[in-house]
Amino acid sequence: MLKISGEALSGGKEFGIDTQVLKSIARQLKKVLESGVEVAIVIGGGNIWRGANAEASGIERVTADYAGMLATVMNALALQDIMEKEGVVTRTQSAINIQAVAEPYIRRRAIRHMEKGRVVIFAAGTGNPYMTTDTAAALRAIEIGAEVLLMAKNYVDGIYDSDPVKNPGAKKYDHITHLEAINQRLAVMDTTALSLCMENHLPIIVFDLMSPDSIERAVTKEAIGTLVSSEA
Q: Which residue pairs from 77-81 have beta carbons closer than 8 angstroms and sit at least 24 positions apart in sequence?
């Protein structure tokens, strides 16, 4: 399972979608598929809409979250289009009913698509407000029986004990357990998602999407980013 943050899709821009980033993702995933690995993606929407920011400006939280789900659908459709142009057969499944542009999320259908060598993009999070796309990634990964959750970040090459931008002496972790990440309140993902991964023994690799061939390297078990697992 590959989780791509919405911010990562904007590349170096402050807003929107950088098609060069989408092309890089598509080309890497094509090589991953050719190696026999099955792939699913959960995509964020922060490059288009930030629910927390909208709530702060006076929009009701539930409304803001539903708008954020639509932003993830927009990103999913853009990624699907680029991937298919690169020769990768792709299906988008949405957690909210939007059948004109995406299939509804059906677990068994998603698994079947993957068995046939198709990439499945899960859009609209879990379909519920107050739930992040990190939680959706953890949930969908567990549902489809994924072996690992790859967290592709935007210019963040792993997990640190403090903000490396504010603290040049911040320590980067090569490995940390789920429980340690929760107890130290490290910015891996939200606590709900991290707890789901811990309870189901799902390892997480946090890495920089912008690093060359980062997705391929993570899939081939090269030492990249930070590994989060149940084992000490």
A: 77/101, 77/102, 77/123, 78/9, 78/17, 78/19, 78/22, 79/4, 79/9, 79/22, 79/25, 79/26, 79/41, 79/43, 79/121, 80/121
Check: CB of residue 79 under 8 Å from CB of residue 27.
no
Average pLDDT score over residue span 67-77: 96
Tell me the average pLDDT across 63-88.
96
Tokens of 127: 């379909």
How many residues belong to the chain?
232
pLDDT tens per residue, range 130-170? 999 999 999 999 999 999 999 998 878 899 988 877 888 88
For 60-79, give the DSSP string.
-HHHHHHHHHHHHHHHHHHH
> Average pLDDT, whole number, for the chain?
93
> What CATH homologous superfamily does 2-229 map to?
Acetylglutamate kinase-like (3.40.1160.10)
Domain regions of the chain by residue span: 2-229
